[in-house]
Amino acid sequence: RAWRHCLENAGNDGKRPLLVLEDDAAPTADFVPTLARALAALPSDAHILYLGYSQAAEWRREISPELVESEYVWTTVGYIIWPEGARLLLNQLPVNEPVDNWLAAHCAGGDLKAYCVRPKVINQADAWNVNSDVGHSDEHYWGPNSDISHSDALYWGPESWEAQAARANGELPAASGPLAGGSCFWDIGSDDDSEEDSIDL
Predict the structure, then answer these.
(1) What's the domain count of the chain?
(2) What is the C-alpha to C-alpha distance for residues 112 and 45, in angstroms, rounded to an integer?
(3) Smallest Cα–Cα separation from 60: which of 109, 122, 123?
């Protein structure tokens, strides 16, 4: 639905992008300045710019300190999509697996030009699968025996064993990131959205 909305509202030049956020998207305190720097460096071939993600592979290349080209990322908590990318994805329907895997496969295959803001500027309000009643097809991969590399470990490196021990003993608080209070975003099609609420990028 969001991809069709992107095409329907692409503007006179057909290039107006759409910001897509899940209902638990939480912008970081540095959302605006970091995104502005990433957009300034964004190549013109971009189909999608991930604002929040879980990194599942090494970056293809670094464009700037705030922007990288993606090989494969998970989640759709927040991204910007351009009409050309929306058209490409709509022409590839149906989605026959979790949508984030489907998007990532198109990126890894070279069809979809995907970039990521680094560090991510949208987090999920809670940790993955916390306070959620949504079942996930990949839940059985999560846990101590998982071989999934997640973005925090790939970006910052794994947490030291000393920090892990201190956290386990309650000497350190649970890991969390700085989230901006409140949000100025609405879901497309929600009762409180309107044409006036749209964001020009």
Answers:
(1) 1
(2) 10
(3) 109
